[in-house]
Amino acid sequence: MLARLTQHVLEVNCTVMYHTSKRILDLLVATLASVLLLPVILLVALLVYINLGSPVLFKQQRIGQHSRPFMLYKFRSMKNAFTADGKALPDKDRLTRFGVWLRATSLDELPALWLVLKGTMSLVGPRPLLPEYLPYYTDEQNRRHSVKPGFTGWAQVNGRNAQSWEERFAYDLWYVDHASLQLDLTILLKTLLVVIKKDGIHAEGHVTMPNFAEYMEQKRSL
Fold it and tell me: Residues 30, 35, 36, 38: is their CA dihedral positive or negative?
């Protein structure tokens, strides 16, 4: 009984230490990056305005830790283009050459540093996805929401968007089960290499990833 209690206390202490260290890492890196990259952020904002006009920022609701919704901010990479009945054209028809470059360099993600500083996101964790996907997750897949969503993650350094949804979720769940400060640092370093190499920017036949809800509906119809 005493041994089990001691083990439990040690596990709790390790968990607290990890989350504290992770938050400190988030604040240090996000603050440093925000300061050092401020000229780049301002330049990208100007380029977005010149190439795509206003608004400069793209905002969209995503799902975070404990399945709570939040507003994600990115630099806009697509032009405003609609059909005659007011519906947005497919992504491939709205993504410009400038937008492709912006996504390939991951510079469109820089505004999300604010969400890391705020504590809504972490530097490392499963990427936040759309609210419309929630009804399609299995109980196992839904465990990805037990941690904060990340600026980058284990799935991003193991294929980025060039994965199936099943593979992406498998990587997310592996991270949830093996999260550690050492793993976070490894993912951050690997992220730099992925961005430099511009690997896995899009899935086959898509400008990023296929819509998960549509993907699941197609599977159910087979």
Answer: positive
Which residue type does 7 have?
Answer: Q
Q: How far apart are CA 34 and CA 124, in angstroms?
A: 16
**CA of 47: how far to CAs of 81, 92, 100, in Å?**
19, 20, 13
3-state secondary structure of 198: coil
pLDDT tens, 7-61? 554 555 567 889 999 999 999 999 999 999 999 999 999 999 999 999 999 999 9
Distance CA 17, CA 10 (A): 10
**Bond into 69 cis (ω within 30):** no
Write out pLDDT tens, residues 174-188: 999 999 999 999 999
